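User: I'm preparing a small set of examples for a lab meeting where we compare how different chains pack in three dimensions. I only have the primary sequence for this one, and I'd like the structure in token form so I can line it up with the others. Please keep the answer compact; I'll paste it straight into my notes.
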Amino acid sequence: RLQRPRSELAAHSAIADIRTLLALPFEYQAAADYAKKALVALELIDLSEISLRKLGRVEKSMITYRNIKVLLTLQQQEPPTDKEGYERAALLLEAPLDPAVRRAFLQRYRGEEGIGERDLHMAQQIRKRLEAAPQKHLVHIGGWMHLVEDELGETLYSRLQEFQPRRILLK
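Assistant: Understood. Below is the structure token output for the 171-residue chain.
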């Protein structure tokens, strides 16, 4: 037993981080809200298997009694603010950066669960929809890191350059 009131446990920054990790993603919530307000269809095009694998690892390796007990002994951390995340995204998407900076950032997210397989799949799904209805507009709401320009051409944005996609950061 952790011998703390449930409200105290729920308010702890480490527990709040885990809850956020397990919640529906911001991108999904934003897309669902947009679709409802605009009266348009919501289509989920990401690879859900990747998310399921990640959530499975979180559940098996992070959410254990022992880990939670240790987390509660650590000093609480201030989570990064939305402003900090937005500023990093704006810098990587909009600022004239040395390509080495973008390359270093993207290198961290390449591979099975990040840039690469997911972006290829989403690009194929978007391309199929655009080609089926070229006269219509398509709105894709997703994680900003997939919209970083990539000299290797592996991000979603780079894979769809011929359509001249417009990137807008949501606040």
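A couple of notes for your slides: The mean pLDDT is 81. The radius of gyration is 19 Å.

User: Perfect, thanks.
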